[in-house]
Amino acid sequence: MKQVYFLILFLALSFSFFSQGFQVNFQGQKQQGMGCSGTALFQDGASLFFNPGSTAFAKESSINIATTPIFANVLYVDSTTGQGYRTENPVGTPFSAYGLFNLKKTPSIKLGLAVYTPFGSTVQWEKNWIGRFALTRLELKAIFIQPTISYRINDKIGIGAGFVLSTGNVNLQKDIPVQDSLGNYGHAELAGKALGFGYNVGIHYDVTEKLSIGITYRSKVQMNLNDGKATFTVPTSLDSNFPDGKFTGGLPLPQVTTLGFAFKANEKLTFVLDINHVGWKAYDTLAFDYTNNTTSLLDTKSPRNYKNIFAFRGGVSYDLIKNLEVRAGGGFGFTPVQNGYVTPETPDANRAYATFGLGYFFGKHFSMDASLYYTHLKRTDKNLETNLNGTFTTNAIAPGIAFVYKF
Question: What total number of domains does the chain contain?
Answer without folding.
Answer: 1
